[in-house]
Amino acid sequence: MTIYLDYQATTPIAPEVGLAMRPWLEEKFANPHSSHAPGREAAATVELARDAIANLLPKGGQVYFTGGATEAINWGMRCAGEGGVMVVDTEHAAVRDTALWLRETGRYVSFMPVMPDGLVDAALPIPEGTGLVAVMQVNNEIGVVQPISALADAAHKAGALFLCDAVQGFGRLEIPEGPDLIAISAHKIHGPKGIGALWVRDRISITPLIFGGGQEGGLRSGTLSPALCAGFGMAAVIARQNKDEDATHTEMLWQIAMEMLPDGWTVNGSTEHRYRGNLNLRREGLDAPRLISEVRGVSFSAGSACASGSGRPSHVLRALGLSDLEARSSIRLGFGRYTTPCEFREALGLIFAAADSQKVLPR
User: Beta 181-185 vs 161-165: how paired, if at all?
Assistant: First the structure.
């Protein structure tokens, strides 16, 4: 059986999530927007899920369901109005590509550099006229945790809204106070794929994303799936209940990796300001794609699943100052709740042994 170490791409569905979803996939099939009794029951399930998700977010906001975090990010970034947009060089493609689209509509777009450890300097000036600043809480490729509250405060002082892509932090770390808009996803916290949410701070006005039946407060029309909502809600409940246990388990796995890490390997990004379930490593001369194909008993990646197969070196690693060769000599290991110490040690042993068998690539 394959050892799964790609938790940043997606996570295994929690058993409790599958059980919560099953009735809504079978006998309880009513439309949650219908006024009859089965419809009202479905609607109640949707609202219970919304409340469970809100319990992991700052107070004073509203959760709107979306088809995923990418949709939530696209929606939130359109709230910049006519103002400019400022994003970090290491943001997910959902943020970067939306920013580039906004540039095509005539808005000013600027990119914030990061330091060699992957962190943003909270003292960086924000250009006048900026309408929205977007910063990821936990980077999906290197796991560094940005100073969200300080950056949000700087954005507000400049008169801008602050959007946080909290996909990799939600349910794992505390979501800091400060953001006006927060994008999250279910399948990164052991929930189902195909559902996410945009959290909007009270008194922040957002434009409708989809017109039609007036669902989600008239802002995103379309029939919600009670099954997906129930799954997302249960994943949030379990994440809240298991938060300390999950963090302790992940820290233990991180320490195992540090103990086993051979000479010649380097951790990409800050090791201090970091979510411990993300280990991005490089070794001089490593052929990462070849390593991934050779270690067939372990599922891991060379970076973001969204950019997999593009052939381009990671823009995140390039932003840290790494060369193309160094970026292509890097791998990402993602682990968490269902990763056992025994299988983790086995996987690391297989990866390091296979890497040792490769010839060093010429510079």
Answer: parallel
